[in-house]
Design goal:
The complex is a heterodimer of chains A (111) and B (112). By secondary structure, chain A is mainly beta. Helices cover 0% and strands 51% of the residues of chain A. Chain B has no helices and twelve strands. The chains are: A mainly beta (111), B mainly beta (112). The interface between A and B is medium-sized, with 27 and 24 residues.
Chain lengths: 111, 112
């Protein structure tokens, strides 16, 4: 039974570019959340998707946007990349209202 | 707002030593509390959880008790192993587990 899978594993971009990260939830899960984990810090909640709608959002600018597809997979898009966007981006999935299971993350480096 | 505060690391112990990692929280409601572990290059794995006051979560020899009176959820293990070396995160979630607040993490190094 595959867990939460994220792609790509690593990504290098330059300032001003746009990036798309992808997440496939654990089988049976319908809710996807995204977190940003800066080096040496705990994960910070970005937003959560359920039934293809954004249900909750953390304190992140509109440059961060997302999408959930009918098969429950999700994308995180970040526009106009800044150096400070360099981080590990974690996807977590769950059944609605249940504890979250995390993927191994995408390491995004901004040059 | 909701927040979690963990003791700063790194914590360095010898194998078979007793472990305590302190965690306190601030919440507006009645949160569920969690400990997650992160090994190098990996995502977070749920270690244990407690959903109401006085509950004790336990897994793989680790324990933590939800103390509402002291707003704490300290992680303990009686005898650590080298394989326990990792970063440990305390977290809380309000009703519905829809949004998690994490502490900054505590790195544990266990020496043989």
């Amino acid at each position: 039974d595959a867990g939460v899978t994220q792609s790509p594993t690593h990504l290098i971009k330059t300032r001003g570019q746009q990036v798309t990260l992808r997440c496939s939830p654990k089988s049976g899960h319908d809710t996807v959340s995204w977190y940003q984990q800066a080096l040496g810090q705990g994960p910070q909640f970005i937003f959560q998707y359920y039934e293809e709608e954004e249900r909750q959002r953390g304190n992140f600018p509109d440059r961060f946007s997302g999408h959930q597809f009918p098969n429950y997979s999700s994308e995180l898009n970040v526009n106009a990349l800044l150096l400070g966007d360099s981080a590990l981006y974690l996807c977590a999935s769950s059944q609605w209202g249940q504890p979250q299971h995390f993927g191994d993350g995408t390491r995004l480096s901004i040059l | 707002g909701d927040s979690v505060t963990q003791m700063e690391g790194p914590v360095t112990l010898s194998e078979e030593a007793f472990l305590t990692i302190n965690c306190t929280y601030t919440a507006t409601g009645y949160p569920s509390l969690f400990w997650y572990v992160q090994y190098p290059g990996e995502g977070l794995q749920l270690l244990l959880k407690a959903t109401k006051a006085d509950d004790k979560g336990s897994n793989k020899g680790f324990e933590a008790t939800y103390r509402k009176e002291t707003t704490s959820f300290h992680l303990e293990k009686g005898s650590v192993q080298v394989s326990d070396s990792a970063v440990y995160f305390c977290a809380l979630s309000e009703q519905g587990f829809n949004k998690f607040y994490f502490g900054s993490g505590t790195k544990l190094n266990v020496k043989p």
